[in-house]
Design goal:
Number of helices: 12
Oligomer: single chain
Subcellular location: Cell membrane
Strand content: under 5%
Keywords: Cell membrane, Membrane, Transmembrane, Transmembrane helix, Transport
Structural class: mainly alpha
GO cellular component, one term: plasma membrane
Radius of gyration: 17 Å
Protein name: Probable membrane transporter protein
InterPro entries: TM_pro_TauE-like, TSUP
Distance between the termini: 33 Å
Number of strands: 0
Order of helices and strands: HHHHHHHHHHHH
Helix content: over 70%
């Protein structure tokens, strides 16, 4: 174990990964999402695709855990459960696709998706229809495929809720609870497949501290009446991270 830890601490780009995971945690703490959107484009520059997903899962499960009780109180757990059902059925499809693509293509997918989501929300994309169970299930299934392929499970769910007319606190709670549940599901799927590399798990544990600190800071400054400010900050950090993760700059 000490040898694995020393190898982890010597990984190139660790400082940038610590900064990215801290900022990602801060965005997640006040917006309810952002860990993967912010951190994955940076992590993808230094570690293999399957590692990035494991690292995000481990760091996020620890980092976001303190905010889950509030998320469940503010959100609608039944709706979250419907989406998770769709996700668990579709997740293996996404993971199969992940193992078939190159690291460079993985980075393009992650960065492009991280740009599309805030872009759509910033231009005012809104959903006029009520969120029925089939719609929730479909969003969960889309999230499962995308999350398995790129580690970005959030975009379909984020778009669905943030484009709805639900209160800010409920939107934040639903997204946060869903992403925490999805991380658990992914862990349970990867474990029997032998995909939980010890080095990736150790890196996730190392980054869990900065992620937890970011989550606590983000949650402490969350105020529902400052929704516009939080969205602008979250979108900006996500966009900068996505642009920096494009292989074009290598």
């Amino acid at each position: 174990m000490p040898e694995v830890l020393s190898q982890t601490l010597s990984i190139p780009g660790l400082g940038w990964m610590v900064l990215a995971i801290f900022l990602a945690g801060m965005v997640r703490g006040f917006a309810g999402f952002g860990t993967a959107l912010v951190a994955l484009p940076i992590l993808g520059q230094y570690v293999p695709p399957i590692w990035t997903i494991v690292v995000i899962i481990v760091a996020d499960l620890i980092g976001a855990s303190l905010n889950v009780p509030r998320a469940l109180r503010d959100g609608q757990p039944k709706d979250v459960g419907v989406m998770l059902l769709g996700a668990v059925l579709a997740l293996p499809v996404g993971l199969s696709l992940l193992l078939a693509i190159s690291p460079e293509l993985f980075r393009y997918i992650v960065s492009i998706m991280a740009l599309i989501v805030p872009g759509l929300l910033m231009v005012g994309f809104r959903l006029r229809r009520p969120l029925t169970r089939p719609i929730l299930f479909g969003a969960g299934a889309a999230s499962g495929i995308l999350g398995g392929l790129s580690g970005l499970a959030g975009p379909p769910v984020i778009l669905l809720f943030m484009a709805s007319s639900r209160p800010v606190a409920a939107i934040r709670g639903n997204i946060m609870a869903y992403l925490f549940g999805f991380a658990l599901l992914t862990l349970l799927v990867l474990w029997p497949q032998g995909r939980l590399d010890l080095g990736a798990v150790m890196l996730g544990l190392v980054l869990a501290g900065p992620n937890l600190a970011g989550n606590m800071l983000g949650a402490a400054i969350f105020r529902p009446d400052r929704e516009r400010l939080y969205r602008v900050v979250g979108y900006t950090i996500t966009a900068v991270s996505a642009l920096s993760g494009l292989p074009l700059w290598d």
